[in-house]
Amino acid sequence: MHLPRLVIAGLSGDAGKTIVSLGLVLLARRRGLSVAAFKKGPDYIDAAWLGWAAGRPAHNLDTFLMGPETVQASFARYGLPEAFNLIEGNRGLYDGVDAAGTHSTATLARLLAAPVVLVVSPAKATRTVAALVLGCQKLDPEVRLAGVILNRVSSARQEQVIRQAIEAATGIPVVGVLPRAPSNELVVGRHLGLVTPAEHPAIDQVGDNLLSLVGGGVDLEAILGIASSAPALAPPPAAVPRRPAAGPRVPIGHFSDSAFTFYYPENLEALEAAGADLVALSALENSPLPRNLAGLYIGGGFPETHGAVLSANRTLLADLKERAAQGLPIYAECGGLMLLAEAIRYEGRRYPMAGVLPFEVEVMPRPQGHGYALLTVDGPNPFFSQGTRLRGHEFHYSQVVLWGEPPPTACAVERGTGCFPGRDAVVAGNVWASYTHLHALATPEWADGLVAAARRYAGGLR
């Protein structure tokens, strides 16, 4: 399988990987190439921007969540032959879950035999940058560093000295040099990362600015040559075809609007494959849920920044509470949990929500949970058998505010934060609300469980 590919990595977070990746994808498309984009690690926002730039959904590749064979199979499935496949790394090149760098961007590059282009931001340094690049080159010889892009370069002299030093010490070519750019002309950050494409007020101008910045500073021909130099991949072992569980197809809704954007494409695909007819809904519209829904999936997002609009939608919120009381299976993650709470407290204001769950949530100035999560299902719930192990991730600034005893939960937390000390996944009838996000390729039981619950509900079994 010839899948031209490269990994965009950095020395650390905030090196400029996303800006470079988006610019390269846009440049390749302007050249007339088909492009597939991928994001290393569990990440919704960068993946959404990559999907916007590529004109097709971007997919995540994560060895912790999925395991190496599933990552290889996913890349083979969604990669484009004889095209341009870009994988954006996360954090620093060798940063993983431990001192050995397990599950790092370097791990992924080795697994996919993908050459790496390293983005370096050389603030107040010249030849020392060459030492850093040389260290990355020598730390793991199986990781092929094929190019360097200098980002936020202050002057022509700094560029010249760094370029000469890197190429003399490592033999790695500098294939791009980008100046400092005003952040308000590119993608804008906030808590949880970047403003999502769905919320950006001037997204077309962002595209023009990225094309101008990256197009004026990178050697696109050299970068495409690096991608084309990646060796052919052996086809991964054929996966067993997914067979939907016996039963009728059932309508399952999901909120798809600027307040709720955190959905892995594979999760929606898995629901359809398991027997769901997906119904896209908007929580920003003040109307009741469709009466024929047999289930509801509420992903994460930024309900707090839409608090006033959501709180004013009393028809929708009242219907959510009523349908939950009637036994509608509802699977809610993070932002979905916040929508189902009594209220969201954010920036000194209180926004009443659906009141399905007996607590409020407060958005704090700092992350309250961030990283991979490991859960064991040990309590009754509508979706998973007890004893099921769940591998997921969480990234939330909100925390639960209780005024009484904690409600029932379904999972013991072995790694992560959860809703309460050592616990996650609040259960209320057929409602599951957790801070942990799951990926369908890592947890195939998830889609089957949600569709099975929807079939029971549609069949009159509450």
Task: Draw up the topology in text.
Blueprint (H helix, E strand, L loop, with lengths): L4 E6 L6 H14 L4 E6 L4 H10 L4 E3 L1 H4 L1 H11 L5 E5 L16 H7 L4 E5 L6 H13 L5 E9 L2 H15 L3 E6 L9 E2 L2 E2 L8 H13 L4 H9 L21 E6 L9 H10 L1 E6 L13 E4 L8 H6 L1 H12 L4 E4 L1 H6 L2 E4 L2 E4 L7 E4 L5 E9 L11 E8 L1 E4 L7 E7 L7 E6 L2 E4 L2 E2 L6 H14 L4
Parallel strand pairs: 1-4, 1-5, 2-3, 2-4, 5-6, 6-7, 10-11, 10-12, 12-13, 13-22, 14-16
Antiparallel strand pairs: 8-9, 14-15, 16-19, 17-18, 17-20, 18-23, 20-21, 21-22
Write out key terms for the chains shown.
seven-stranded parallel sheet, single chain, elongated, Rossmann fold, ten-stranded mixed sheet, 23 strands, about 450 residues
Could you walk me through the main structural features you see in this protein, from its secondary elements to its overall organization?
There is one protein chain. The chain is α/β, with parallel strands linked by helices and 462 residues long. The protein contains 14 helices and 23 strands. It has helices at residues 17-30, 45-54, 63-66, 68-78, 105-111, 127-139, 156-170, 203-215, 220-228, 265-274, 307-312, 314-325, 335-340, 445-458, and strands spanning 5-10, 35-40, 59-61, 84-88, 116-120, 145-153, 174-179, 189-190, 193-194, 250-255, 276-281, 295-298, 330-333, 343-346, 349-352, 360-363, 369-377, 389-396, 398-401, 409-415, 423-428, 431-434, 437-438. The strands form 4 sheets. It has a 10-stranded mixed β-sheet with strand order 11-10-12-13-22-21-20-17-18-23. Strands 3-2-4-1-5-6-7 form a 7-stranded parallel β-sheet, with helices on both faces. It has a 4-stranded mixed β-sheet with strand order 15-14-16-19. α1 (17-30) runs parallel beside α2 (45-54), α1 (17-30) packs across α8 (203-215) and α10 packs across α14. The termini are far apart.
